[in-house]
From TrEMBL:
The keyword Transferase applies. Signal peptide: none annotated. Belongs to the UDP-glycosyltransferase family. This is UDP-glycosyltransferases domain-containing protein. Pfam families: UDPGT. One of its GO terms (molecular function) is UDP-glucosyltransferase activity.
């Protein structure tokens, strides 16, 4: 995936290729497993498209191996003329907004979920730990804007399972219904953050609460 890198970090990077990508609208699948996940080397042969990154040593709480160690043998050589692997942060919000992206394979982190909703992109839900599994339930069973992958509880999701869910999402009537729902969710989210929308009102109510609490603490002190 296209990523932030010294030689690529320039405005309009994705837009510069829009004419080409317009011929493949909604055909790309974006995958991100979060910023703290280190996949097991044996698990990478089942799905070979991803973004990887290594933080600066002074910013890392724990040592990370070279991301190239997780790629299949010969992967970089085979894909050098048609792919791009960079070892830094992906501009995810920009990527999922791109018109070529038709689905998002996500770990169900809430920031990622919100970015997908704001982009109107349906999700293939692959939770890893903590609240991500609860988020998956909300996205799949309540909002019905994502589909789950089988095997994540055993920490082994096979390529065939991912392929099946991609085809369900991109080719079936069920997938069309799901895409229609996420488009509605996008409209609702956009309305919520506008002036006077529910998120806008709640945010300013939160700021007011902080202001009152600060005044109360000052008086008490």
């Amino acid at each position: 995936m296209i990523n932030r890198s010294p030689h690529l970090n320039r405005p309009g990077l994705l837009q510069s290729r829009s004419k080409h990508y317009a011929t493949i609208l909604n055909s790309a699948i974006y995958r991100n497993k979060g910023s703290t996940t280190i996949p097991p080397p044996g698990g990478t042969t089942h799905l070979q498209t991803w973004t990887v990154r290594s933080p600066r040593e002074e910013q890392s709480r724990f040592a990370e191996p070279d991301p190239e160690a997780f790629l299949p043998d010969g992967f970089l050589q085979r894909t050098r003329d048609r792919g791009l692997v960079l070892k830094n942060w992906a501009p995810q919000a920009e990527v999922v907004q791109h018109e070529a992206v038709g689905a998002f394979v996500t770990h169900c982190g809430w920031n990622s979920a919100l970015e997908a909703i704001m982009a109107g992109v349906p999700m293939i839900c692959w939770p890893l730990y903590a609240e991500q599994r609860l988020n998956k339930v909300h996205l799949v069973e309540e909002m019905k804007i994502g589909v789950p992958v089988e095997g994540y509880e055993e920490e082994l999701v096979r390529a065939q399972e991912v392929e099946a869910k991609v085809r369900l999402l991109m080719e079936s009537d069920q997938g069309k219904e799901l895409r229609d729902r996420v488009a509605m969710a996008k409209e609702m989210a956009a309305h919520a953050v506008k002036e006077g929308g529910s998120s806008d009102v709640a945010f300013y109510a939160f700021l007011k609460h902080l202001e009152v609490s600060k005044l109360d603490n000052t008086k008490a002190g």
